[in-house]
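**User:**
My hope is that you can spare some time for a protein that puzzles me. This is the protein in question:
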Amino acid sequence: MSIKKASKRRSTVVNAPRRAQKAMSREARSLYAEIRQGIRHLETSIGEIQRGLRKAEHKLEADARARIRELRKDARTTPLSASCARRSYRIKSSAIHRDPETQAIHGYHIQGREGGSH
């Protein structure tokens, strides 16, 4: 079994820029090389910035998760008693029933004012 090697001929599309490069002066080629080097430096800088941003983002997420865990732990250790919760609900709901404006908004009828019962 023999493995066939790829041909070493290049297409004219690839050769055309090479011919153009050879036709350029030595100074122009060195300027292009400097530009390419600058582009490489910019790419590495961008990569470093992106890595730093990802690292900061992960740190923020980790801090937020830790804070949530802490808040949940605090909530478990100091629970609101059931009677306290019921009392605050009763106070809120009775305030709604006493306020004529709120009653009108929610469609409650006030006995004696509108001439009928509930």
